[in-house]
Design goal:
140 residues, mainly alpha, 67% helix, disordered N terminus
Length: 140
């Protein structure tokens, strides 16, 4: 009788397949979050009264400035998400940096869209986890 043994891959633990699927999902989430941020930015640029301010907050910018921040960040996040889906190495590193930056931006944007800001920060935490815990999908 012959025994069949599974081919071992570096860093492959019991959760490696799930985490690798998480990387693919992180790319999809980055792309979708980027597109939503682009629309959020366009809305802030076009109409300054589109977001209602909830209470007073230490960090207060003009909503047009917030619109530009979200537009530029959204474009970068969407392009990086596309790069992650294409399995490009630079996209993984840039994805971690942009997801970290998105957490900071959404924290500062809390008084304007509190529910979406918290949700977007949670998505960014997942993206960071997925990108740093798995190796490239093409590694053997």
């Amino acid at each position: 009788m012959s025994q069949h043994t599974a081919r071992s891959t570096p860093g492959a633990g019991p959760d490696a397949g799930w985490a690798a699927g998480g990387t693919l999902f992180a790319g999809v989430l980055m792309t979708v979050t980027g597109v939503i941020s682009i629309f959020e930015g366009i809305a802030g640029i076009v109409e300054d009264e589109v977001y209602a301010r909830v209470g007073s907050y230490v960090f207060s910018w003009d909503l047009t400035a917030w619109g530009w921040v979200h537009l530029v960040l959204g474009i970068l996040v969407a392009i990086t998400g596309w790069g992650i889906l294409k399995n490009l190495d630079w996209a993984r590193y840039l994805g971690v940096a942009l997801a970290s930056l998105n957490i900071i931006v959404q924290f500062l944007f809390l008084p304007y869209q509190p529910v979406w800001a918290i949700f977007s920060m949670a998505i960014s935490v997942f993206i960071i986890w997925a990108l740093v815990t798995t190796e490239s999908r093409t590694a053997v």
